[in-house]
Amino acid sequence: MLAKRVLDLLISIPLLIVLSPLWLMIVLWIKADSKGPAVFRQERVGRNGALFTIYKFRTMVPNADAVMKEKIEQLKKEGKFDPDNFIFQDKDDPRITKSGRFLRKSSLDELPQLLNIINGTMSIVGPRPEVPEIVDQYTHEQRHRLDMPPGVTGLAQVNGRSELTLTETLKYDVEYVQNWRLGLDLKILWKTLFIVIKGKGAY
């Protein structure tokens, strides 16, 4: 875990410095494209169930988060919420802004998570950080994904990304935790590079 933390800092700090001019350009684009803050903040569940604030460039309309939470709660009340087939991201989602579509396709919306990596709430590689409403539905086995710090990329991201159902994503996350080693992180990082270049599974 110490080696994992050192790897995180060796990668994230230089990237934060080198990409700072790009950050400014993205912020100006988002502000010109739609009303609302350029950086999206949301409560997520991290390692051992600890809550933290995740940072991303905003790719949706300002009230998109509230709309999604209302949808989940409504499905629960109606007894129609199915974690096995629930998919958060839809390539035709009308809540996504024009700038947001490009940022998602290029994965540039994830850049602010470098701050999460530096402050220790996230790692570069790990299970994707989930919202509390979904974590509350986890089975005992699925909760093992919380044994590791959440990551910007991970086993699920190099095996389908947004095309996966929630259950499929959780399966990959648990597999990652059970088989974790530093070499696996390096392998995932290498695969992520090509996934990002192709823009495969991102919308």
UniProtKB/TrEMBL annotation:
Domain Bacterial sugar transferase: 4-198
Domain of life: Bacteria
Record GO terms (molecular function): transferase activity
TM stretches of this protein: 7-30
Keywords: Membrane, Transferase, Transmembrane, Transmembrane helix
Presence of keyword GTP-binding: no
InterPro entries linked: Bact_transf (IPR003362)
Recorded family membership: Belongs to the bacterial sugar transferase family.
Protein name (database record): Sugar transferase
Organism whose genome encodes this protein: Dehalobacter restrictus (strain DSM 9455 / PER-K23)
